[in-house]
Amino acid sequence: MSEPTEPPSERGTSVAAGNVLIVGLVGLVLAALMNADSLVEQAERKPFGWSRTASLAVWHPMQDVSNVLRLGFPRDVVDEATGRADDDTDDFEFPTETAEPVTTSTVPPDPELRTPTAAEPLRVWVGGDSMSQVFGQSLVAMADDTDLMSADLDYRISTGLTRPDYFNWPAHISEEFPESDPEAVVIMFGANDAQGMEVEGEVFQTLDENWTAEYRRRVAGTMDLLEDEGRIVYWVGQPIMRDADFSSRMAGVNEIYRSEAESRPWVRYIDAYEMFADDSGAYEAFLPDVAGDVQDMRQGDGIHLSRPGGDLLARAVLDQIEADAKL
Questions:
Q1: 43-102: per-residue pLDDT in tens?
Q2: Residue 217: left (phi > 0), alpha (psi -120 to 50), or beta?
Q3: How many structural domains are present in the chain?
Q4: Which of 141, 160, 224, 225 has a C-alpha 20 to 30 A away from that of 169?
Q5: Cα–Cα distance for residue pair 140/261, rounded to 1 Å
Q6: C-alpha dihedral (193, 232, 304, 316), degrees to nearest 10
Q7: 3-class DSSP state for residue 49?
Q8: 163 and 256 share one domain
Q9: Same structural domain for residues 78 and 134?
Q10: Mean pLDDT for the stretch of residues 217-239
């Protein structure tokens, strides 16, 4: 008859559990050190405020240690092999001053879109922030259905013009457009831009005097960057939002878009704000769609467009493009 097996002692169990915990913590610290650059980058993308400051206070020292020990080397090798190391679009800077506004004595003739054919369809580019996703998909589908347009969609979630440290749209456009050479450009920013903006080490708050001046400069610079012979830019404003405070900020950025587009013959401002409001000018999710049937135009967040909402806005933009191309 075999001897009864002694149960493990409580001390042995606690030591084993402690070793597992220590190994786990060491693993987490090592993983953080190896990915310190990425963690710092993510922290820098946060809106300016205490959360961003606290995150950087934690990850910057980790990054310093990682750089000294060269623990980020394996990740650098992977990024270079996959092309991520070359995805740097932070080198574009707007000129200190934008061009003088166009006056009545210097207004050039309105550009005209080329009338396309099936053999040579009109090249259309649609881009912007997450608001461009559903709307852009609708516009690309509708444009392709005409057999007279070839449309591409390039949307980037959580982007805009206030945070080029996260994604620099003007730099991206400068690199992308010489190759794709779009004739009609549809662009939509704003939903992510109503946040603090850092300029030369100073943070300006949304729609205060300094913020407005700097944002206007960036909008004007982007519009000027998009100018090209035979090209028309369709700058789409933000729709009314369910949250009244957020909607007020969107109305503020829309006014900047409208006024800057007004002095540039190659830019058409598309007002989406009133398109998604009721007869009294208030937010309303349920509105007639392109077929006249009442549909829910918004997603659950009261910000983004649903498919019927995307179709409605896309139809309005496409109507303008077709009019300019004399279709």
A1: 555 555 546 456 556 655 756 665 666 655 555 544 555 444 444 444 456 554 444 544
A2: alpha
A3: 2
A4: 141
A5: 23
A6: 150
A7: coil
A8: yes
A9: no
A10: 97
CATH, residue 165: 3.40.50.1110
Going from the C-alpha of 53 to that of each of 48, 62, 196, the distances in angstroms are: 8, 15, 13
Average pLDDT, the chain: 83
Across 105-114, 157-166, 216-225, which has the greatest mean pLDDT? 216-225
Residues 252 and 298 in one domain: yes
Q: Residue 239: give the domain boundaries.
A: 122-324
Q: Is the pLDDT of residue 259 over 90?
A: yes
Residues 81 and 137 in one domain: no
Q: Tell which wins on pLDDT, 25 or 178.
A: 178
Do both 77 and 202 map to the same domain?
A: no
Identify whether residues 70 and 140 lie together within a single domain.
no
State whether the Cα torsion 20-24-30-33 is positive or negative.
negative
Residue owning tokens 């980020």: 72
Q: What is the DSSP string of 245-312?
A: HHHHHHHHHHHHHHHHHHT-TTEEEE--TGGGB-TTS-B-SEEE-TTS-EEE-B-TTSSSB-HHHHHH
Q: What is the DSSP letter of 193?
A: T
Task: Quote the tokens at residue 137.
Answer: 């998909």
Cβ atoms of residues 141 and 200 within 8 Å? no
